[in-house]
Fold each of these.
Amino acid sequence: MTGEAYQQFRPHPWHGLSVGPQPPDLVNAFVEITPFDLVKYEVDKVSGFLRVDRPQRSSSTPPTLYGFIPRTLCGDGVAKVAGLQHGDRDPLDICVLSERPIARAEVILDVRVLGGLLMEDGGEADDKIVAVLKDDAIWSEARDITDLPKRLIERLQHYFVTYKMRPGETATVKVQQIYGVQRARAVVEAAIADYRAAYPGLTG
């Protein structure tokens, strides 16, 4: 046994895991879906298990690993950074690049924050943080979203604009801005503060 605390029971992935080793730069990412998934999974907020949210409505799949940062919340603070009235009241979403394929969900990754996409969904802030796997053989030297290929960011943008659309419908989701690491740090810090305000008894 090491000096780390042992948990007898599985912690809730949103409330029971740590936000990460050095937020807002190095954080934990809990993976819900991978680039190989044709179904969108989402953590059930009560049980902590993955629930089928919906089949992907088109042939488009996420270009990266996709999940959230534990113990974060898109609330009023995140909305203020975005210049909007409200956040979507969900954990802060995160997209993670990995050179080696990671084909399974419900894993925890140590990741470095590089930037993000300001997404507005029904008038609410729904930011998507962009990060790279810490110590990744290819991506680990990146320090800002501008260090990533533009085509990859375009794919992310296209995915999030279209991932909720049904055939024949008009998109209601907008990617308002692509931002760098300084803005991303502010969003992560605001999401941590929003979580602590909403769940004061769970932040010890």
Note: The helical segments are 76-82, 150-162, 181-198.
Amino acid sequence: MSDPLPGNLSGVDDLVAECCADLEGVNSAREVTLVACRSAIRAAGSSIRAVHRQDAVEALRLADECEVAVRHALDAAGPYPQLRAGGFLHDAQKEFAEARLTAALVSGGQLPSAAALGVDTAAWLRGLAEAASELRRHLLDRLREGQLDRAEHLLEAMDEVYGALVVVDYPDAVTNGLRRTLDSLRAVLERTRGDVTTTVLQHRLQRAIEAASPTTGTT
């Protein structure tokens, strides 16, 4: 008499087929999510570049385009928790938050919250840190134009954001790498502070030289 098979395998094919059907849904949703995330990231980058060009209308249009793509990605990934935890979806949300927050920091407007943007908390925090880093480019443009007061104001904004974020003390697994992003922001902040300080001192020296120079009289 032969030994019985371990367990009843009469329905194993059907069980595997059910799993395959589920995985097919996951795979299809993943493809949709990836395409939407790539579109969101491209639109966010273009929106930030428009902010630096001081083209507020185009920046807003592209940020809106980014938001549509992010919403599409989130909807596609919604039924599948394993997709929502994917790094590509976090990156898309982070880039979207960065685009909105960069525009707000440059314009002096109210910063939209994570809830208002409909993004995860960790993505919002990293987006804010990277938005503050983006201010360096805008600040240097203002320095080249001789707008010292504006440059100093932007530096203060960078400093305030860093001061607010540095107290967030949670593991990287929770913040999705915020600590590394803050390390980069601190380095950008210190370089920018040096640039502003040097320019302000040069400006003061130039004014002092001009004030001390004797005026040329007429004969």
Note: The chain has one domain: 18-212.
